[in-house]
Amino acid sequence: MNDTHAKILDCTIRDGGLVNNWDFSVEFVRDLYYSLNAAGVEYMEIGYKNSPKLLKGADAGPWRFLEESFLREVIPEKGNTKLSALVDIGRVDENDILPRSESMLDMIRVACYVKDVDKALDLVSKFHDYGYETTINIMALSNVMEHDLIEAFQQIAKSPVDVVYVVDSFGSLHHRDIEYLVAKFQRHLPDKQLGIHAHNNMQLAFSNTIVAAERGVQYLDSSVFGMGRAAGNCNTELLVSYLKNPKYELRPVLEVIERRMIPLRDQVEWGYIIPYMMTGMLNEHPRVAMALRSGDDKDKYAEFYDKLTSPETALAAKGGE
Amino acid sequence: MNDTHAKILDCTIRDGGLVNNWDFSVEFVRDLYYSLNAAGVEYMEIGYKNSPKLLKGADAGPWRFLEESFLREVIPEKGNTKLSALVDIGRVDENDILPRSESMLDMIRVACYVKDVDKALDLVSKFHDYGYETTINIMALSNVMEHDLIEAFQQIAKSPVDVVYVVDSFGSLHHRDIEYLVAKFQRHLPDKQLGIHAHNNMQLAFSNTIVAAERGVQYLDSSVFGMGRAAGNCNTELLVSYLKNPKYELRPVLEVIERRMIPLRDQVEWGYIIPYMMTGMLNEHPRVAMALRSGDDKDKYAEFYDKLTSPETALAAKGGE
């Protein structure tokens, strides 16, 4: 199969930052950028373009509040790999955004829940007018009711947004869900390109992503060695080696895994870890599992399972990309 | 979807033994058996029924050369979970096998390469006449030529074997390959039940297994926490939680992971590890990657990739389940 319609968007820094509180050195991010560029990866999401004024108590690294002058330092010479940043509704100050012609960024992605699609599209329009490529990423799709989604589609169809993402926030979806959602998005949004952002709670992130690509989804989110919140994402190295496009080179990704990701994985954890498998299976936000993993009871799986599934212990919490 | 046609065959001890040279204590195996029984898992493959006389230099644990009196000690009271053992062509002494009515074993599985299907079926017939359920597991399917496979099917169709396995020895197959192979097996062997044995080199073992189940494959191999040679297998806990059959209980599997597999994984390694990803992607036996992982250069991925893909360094080797 020819996969040249597919583009890889590596979100190691942005989603992986949720693991290490964006504690990446400039050298790390620079190395990653040039490695992805050598590998032929089309986009690198280098962080959030949120405003520190709007995010209380934030002491996170600069990747959470990207500034243009800082970005120019990090990447002195841009290659073919485009740069993207994510913004959250209510956390972005539009006055911080330069026109694309003056910016290092090429794409701005807006993450939102279905109830905030109108707010997201308002931002999308502004970024679009500034010249950016835009996406809208509707989180927690597995908990969205049909009529709300249809209504959101109607608004999205009329907007200038370039790409609409299927987001498996909780890593709870399998291939039949993906086929169902992709078909639905295509039916309601025939003029939009689609993307997929998968989580690996049940070891299905890569599989779900290639199933989506096969059905025509163009933008495939991934991260190197799968680094991302909790169970992490679809692995960039798997996509680069799997997709049938002569431009992709696996070797630079292997090098950056060896140089950067293996030492980092010794310090912080992500990936297929049993409590994340459980929240995925139960279609829940991983936050309770993340709390468990940071404590002494981190491997008490059976006890945790009892808590998660007991009707008395209302641990269940929904939300989040 | 109702998945009650599917049966889980847990091969943690047999395939996992390839990781730790079958160094499992009796307590470990007993605990695993009763946990799988409580979880509703249909079969446990408790080792190999090879003969020490026919396997030179073998110093491996008793799980490689199962004896009836030993098995009775390990499992004093059998539950609903049936026991299976694997035999390799040329390594089994038929005189070691008791009739099923006198044995702890319910099923004997024969692993072979396509060129040895005649020898395998000869063994199958004997085991069948002894009253055992039988399977034939054709290894390294990804390297078998069409006409050899068709010829094998003709022999298998005439044999009394109960189950024919699709074996992804190198973890190199993805969902379209599985769909293709399952359809081919079904076309040529309409009267046989099918099984699948997947490896997790590219994080596709679970996904490939559920795709196969969806297409009607009945016997699903897996292992607890994925323990198996190199990248390991489809995870039993994922199947138990995914399959729609009210008999399955996840909790006993979680308990045995917590009690047994987490401490074991600290001592020996298996799973998604980059050199195994590479051999999977290149459709090769993991043995060179296993050798790499046992040495000082275990994380030199780029150098290993160069060796694997260089035409001069003929590292490539084929073979094995």
TrEMBL record, chains A, B:
Pyruvate carboxyltransferase domain residues: 6-258
Domain of life of the source: Bacteria
Entry keyword set: Manganese
Gene3D superfamilies: Aldolase class I
Name of one Pfam family that matches: HMGL-like
CDD domains in alphabetical order: DRE_TIM_HOA_like
Keyword flag rRNA processing: no
PROSITE patterns reported in the protein's UniProt record: PYR_CT
Entry-linked InterPro entries: 2-IPM_HCS-like, Aldolase_TIM, PYR_CT
Entry-linked PANTHER family: 2-ISOPROPYLMALATE SYNTHASE 1, CHLOROPLASTIC-RELATED (PTHR10277:SF9), HOMOCITRATE SYNTHASE-RELATED (PTHR10277)
Protein name as annotated: Aldolase catalytic domain-containing protein
Species for this entry: Paenibacillus hodogayensis
